[in-house]
Amino acid sequence: MHGKYTWWLAAKSDHMWIRWVGHVYMKGNDWQEYTPTANSSQVRDILKPGFLNGQWIDNKGVYSVSSGYKWLCGQQSKVKWCPLIWNQTSIPKHSFISWLVVQERLMTRERLLNFGIITDGSCFFCHSHLETHQHLLYDCQFSKLCWALLCGWLEIDLPSAGLIDWCLKWRCKSLMKKQIVYAAIVAVWYHIWNARNVCRLEAAILITPAALITKVKLDITKRCKDRIWSVKAHKFAWEPKYD
To answer: Among the residues of 103-162, which ranges form H helices?
Structure first.
């Protein structure tokens, strides 16, 4: 965001703030040569390589926050699971938890055990296996029942192993169905993780697999309805009006 001020200085924008800065601080000096005080922001020095002859090197010479962010990030490698996690039909909080899932970054008891934070790494659901990502989300009897119920609702067969790879290779003629299936999968991940945390805090399983999938159904149904109404509202807002 501070880069926008650098852009204004570089482009010599006819702006009251730019004129004030030029008069009080820079005193007519070029923005690239001006030496800021030690306690000033160093954004100018960070973004300076991104300007050439007063023009931003991206976005047709005009600086924007998004172009500045992408430039600072540099070349990024694309991940294959992006369409699954950041699917438009998915609920944002579900996507965030699922982003941790695909990278195996959930703070499972296995990880806490390896960090030396806890001494018991057993699963909160079954209390008989180590709580790894694989066990918690797929292999535990609780999770298996959740996935079986989801498959029955969606009328689709999901693999017991390699679910992420299956999603990336799955071909579906209906884009809407594919988005719903993706959204439902990340919703199950979210609710399993949420149910696990409830068990951790309250020392009891307070939800059944059937109740969990009911929550998933309600979330996905509401999300789809909200998206449909949003599209309709946008469409009607731009339709010409006739007297």
So the answer is: 109-114, 133-134, 141-154
Token pair 């909200």 is found at 226
Q: How confident is the model at residue 20 (pLDDT cuts 50, 70, 90)?
A: confident
* CA–CA distance, 80 with 2 (Å, rounded to integer): 33
Task: Residue 207: name the closest of 154, 143, 148, 150 by CA.
Answer: 143
Residue 84 makes CB contacts below 8 A (sequence gap 6+) with 98, 102, 164, 167, 168, 182, 185, 186
Lowest mean pLDDT among 148-157, 191-200, 228-237: 228-237
CA distances from 180 to 133, 137, 167, 177 (A): 24, 19, 12, 5
Same domain, 15 and 102: no
Tokens 């579906």 sit at which residue? Answer: 172
Which DSSP category does 106 fall into? S
Instruction: Give the pTM.
Output: 0.72
For 1, how many CA atoms within 13 A lie in the half-sphere containing its CB? 0
Phi and psi at residue 216, in whole multiples of 5°?
Answer: -60, -45
HSE, CB side, 13 Å, CA atoms: give it for residue 127: 5
Q: Of 17, 52, 73, which marks where a domain is finished? A: 73
218 and 135 in a common domain: yes
Q: Which long-range contacts (CB under 8 A, 24 or more apart) does 149-153 make?
A: 149/209, 149/210, 149/213, 150/184, 150/185, 150/188, 150/213, 150/216, 153/184, 153/213, 153/217
CA atoms within 13 Å, Cβ hemisphere of 38: 0
Total domain count, the chain: 2
